[in-house]
Write a structure and sequence with these properties.
11 helices; 2 strands; ABC transporter involved in vitamin B12 uptake, BtuC; 69% helix
Length: 295
């Protein structure tokens, strides 16, 4: 059918696969945003800067300490997540009883400070980060040559996304987290330290952003602006899926990546705006998002 439209099947399948890879980044980043907003009611506009920090921490671990990709995949999210814990304790914890706008403005300002500091010390030309030897090379799929590392990105993102969903939706810890957002006083009455739980949840959401940054480091040049444009798209993904919806963030992230890939085949000029067009339509029809609940 696509050959009748003048589109070779190889081109279509190749763009769908590239869309799935992009969707993997959208899903992991929007998942972190959804966790933070759904459980803390904080609109974390510093998420893109924390994604960038994950890539830079991986680069620093390699170049300053000789720590390779695989340990960095664990250490970088832990280090950046720890900075998120400090941020929550020092600043964000003071804003929980105020309007969401205050948290948005604070995190937006923090994002600008972080990007400015890294831009001042490392410039904007980008720093290379080598693909690990175990994931070098690729496979011939018939319709395209798939680099092994990009296939790894899809697998890693799926495992992290659905592992997070299972933890929040199907475990006792997740039940405590969800209950703490609804009635923190009641949960605290059972001897659970709710403030500590909130702090660790924010750190976990930040760690997800850093994890995505480490995955992105070998593909994109590590530079201070790498999260600035991407975060706008990821916010659109979260809005479409439903603010605070874990499954909505995952499904919408992968789905919009595929739609973006299809748009590159049929109407390349619209690929940069198709996600925002979908967001506008969804907000008109279902303002709470595809998987969200009405307020």
């Amino acid at each position: 059918m696509f050959e009748l439209l003048g589109i070779p099947p190889q081109v279509l399948m190749g763009q769908l696969l590239l869309g799935l890879i992009n969707g993997s980044f959208y899903a992991v980043l929007s998942l972190g945003l959804a966790v933070i907003f759904g459980l803390l009611n904080i609109i974390n506009f510093s998420h893109g800067a924390q994604y960038m920090m994950g890539a830079f921490v991986a680069w620093m671990l390699l170049n300053y300490f000789g720590i390779g990709y695989w340990p960095a995949l664990v250490l970088a999210p832990l280090i950046v997540g720890a900075t998120g814990i400090v941020l929550e304790k020092v600043a964000l914890s003071r804003l929980y009883k105020l309007d969401h706008l205050y948290g948005l403005l604070l995190t937006f300002g923090i994002a600008l400070i972080i990007q400015g500091l890294f831009r001042n010390y490392y410039g904007i030309s980008g720093l290379p980060y080598q693909i690990p030897d175990a994931l070098a090379g690729g496979r011939n799929l018939g319709f395209m040559f798939l680099p092994t590392y990009r296939g790894w990105i899809v697998v890693a993102s799926v495992v992290v996304c659905f592992g997070t969903w299972f933890m929040i939706e199907k475990t006792r810890l997740g039940a405590y987290l969800r209950a703490a957002t609804e009635n923190p006083a009641l949960v605290g009455a059972f001897g659970i330290n709710v403030p500590r739980m909130i702090t660790l949840t924010y750190g976990f959401g930040v760690a997800l952003a850093a994890f995505a940054g480490v995955l992105a480091a070998p593909i994109y040049a590590v530079n201070p602006n790498m999260g600035a444009d991407l975060i706008i798209v990821v916010f659109a993904v979260v809005v479409i899926g439903g603010m605070g919806s874990i499954m909505g963030a995952i499904v919408t992230g992968y789905g919009l990546g595929l739609i973006e890939g299809l748009t590159r085949v049929f109407y390349p000029e619209g690929s940069a705006v198709v996600i925002f067009v979908i967001m506008a339509i969804v907000l008109l029809i279902k303002p709470e998002g595809l998987f969200g609940r009405a307020a």
